[in-house]
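Our working data are protein records whose layout never changes between entries. Instead of coordinates, the fold is spelled out as a row of discrete tokens. Here is such a record, shown just as it appears in the course material:
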Amino acid sequence: MAVPSITPLPDAGLTLVFGLLELLEDRGGREDGYKIARDLNFKFGDLLKVMKAAEILGFVSTPAGDVVLEPLGKQFLEAKINERKLMVREQLKKHSLFNYFIRLLHGQESKALTKEVVLEHLAMLLPSEKPERQFQTMVNWGRFAELFGYNKDEDRFYLDNE
């Protein structure tokens, strides 16, 4: 498998992303990022990770320091939980890191890999990132979207619902 250009995931939980979307909706769909950080008593760097995660999912854009709720973000807020999972799933499939592992897992007879193998791939793909952190974020986001699963007892990272 050729090694594509892979974009790392920001260290941000999806619940924070969803909270950001709700806050933006409450504030008319657009707000200054620094104001949000001040109002929530967040370090701007931590909010930046959440903003980046929301941007990866296509829910917001970030022109000139503002955070703007995009139509897909509005649609997400109006959706029921299963629709939300499907929306996140479809967006994750477009992301280079998720796409890489989907293809890799499809190439495995068991449709699964050990955590050690996944960490090796992450270290190779993203040498400037912490593989364990990328793994945890990928598993957490993938679980919400019912795209990936990880069974710690069996040390099995696998495709969910594929």
User: Anything to note?
Assistant: Residues 81-159 form one domain. The chain has two domains: 14-78, 81-159.
